[in-house]
Amino acid sequence: MADDLYGALGVSRTADQKEIRRAYREKARKFHPDVNKTPGAEETFKRISEAHDVLSDPETRAQYDRFGENFRQYAAADAAHSASGPRRGGGTRYTRGGTGAQNVNWEDLFGGGFGGFGRGVDHSAELELTVEEAYRGGKRTVQIGSPFGGAREYVIDIPAGALDGQRLRIPGAGGAGADGQDGDLLVTLRVKDSKRYRLDGANIETDLPIAPWEAALGADVNMPTPGGSVTVHVPPGSSTGRRLRLRGQGMPRRGQPGDLYARVKVVVPRTLTKKEKELFEKLRDVSSFDARRGS
Question: Start and end of every J domain (predicted)?
Answer without folding.
Answer: 4-68
